[in-house]
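User: Could you check the structure of this?
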Amino acid sequence: MFDGTTVLLLGGAVLLIILVLILEFFRVACVKREAAAVAGTTSLDSTLCESKDCVRCAKNKEVLRSALTRLSYHASDSRVSNLSTSSDLVSLTNNDIAMVTADIRASLKKLRDQVDRTRSEEWNAKEGTDVSLPIVFKCSGIREQKVWSLDDFPGMNLLEKNFTQIFLEFVHLYKSPLSETTQFWKTNQTNRGVWQVVMLVDQGRKTKASELCPITMSLIEQIPYFMGGNMFGNASFSVVHPDTEITAHYGPTNCRVRCHLGLKTPVEAESKSCSLWVEGHSLNCEEGKCIFFNDAFLHSVHHRGSPNSGVRVVLMLDLWHPDISDAQRKVLDYAFS
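Assistant: Sure, the predicted structure tokens are below.
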């Protein structure tokens, strides 16, 4: 039997637990309302693509709101970090989380009133700027560098050394007459011409097509800079046909650097007719060589070669920006997983 004092103590404990649960319920509700208020209620109109699942074009605000809510949970409840062993968030400091959270809030605020850059006066006004203008998320405090080199990514020559094997897997995937293989290829929207892409890693997730390229995937997974498991991370084969113009556009985030490994280029006589333009820099792709650029800057691709000049083929993959620390990677992987 319990005496009166024990009963009162137990009753008080139960009431306290109930109060804590009620406060937590209201805290979560406030976080969601805050995220929605910052982000606004309408989605960003975009002419870049029509995919309902595109992070850059269709789900930008939804992605940022979700990331903000995830980090708000973690920052206020240690139990969440204990459950997040896959991201190793236990080792992160509140400062790491606070910095990324502040960047997400700033990105949400920018999206609230932003019009589609492809139709605004800002598009032409910003050409030549030294500041990146990512469509979704901008990370502060990192270098605003447009073009990078192999020296900035030690070990990336692994791709160059295995160029032949990667190229053969591309040919197998591209030339296969099987319907279950041809369905993997998609035609992206372009200003003019034909631009085909097959995704191996699509917004952080491996695709069925990746199973047909085991050597390529094995090499990608050995690269410590690859943004695997993060929705801003992609890997794909890209084929640009002659007489094609890929409209100038901005990528979704500045926290990545995009790599192009040249697999096939137009015939030598017309090699200069095909190039990648990044805010005043003209980059020519070479077979077996990597080029690196931050696609958060305005960039485009043109292939003005003759019909017989051949296609331009690259392996595209997204790498972590060199200035993103290991701790920031973990926070960003958790927020944008």
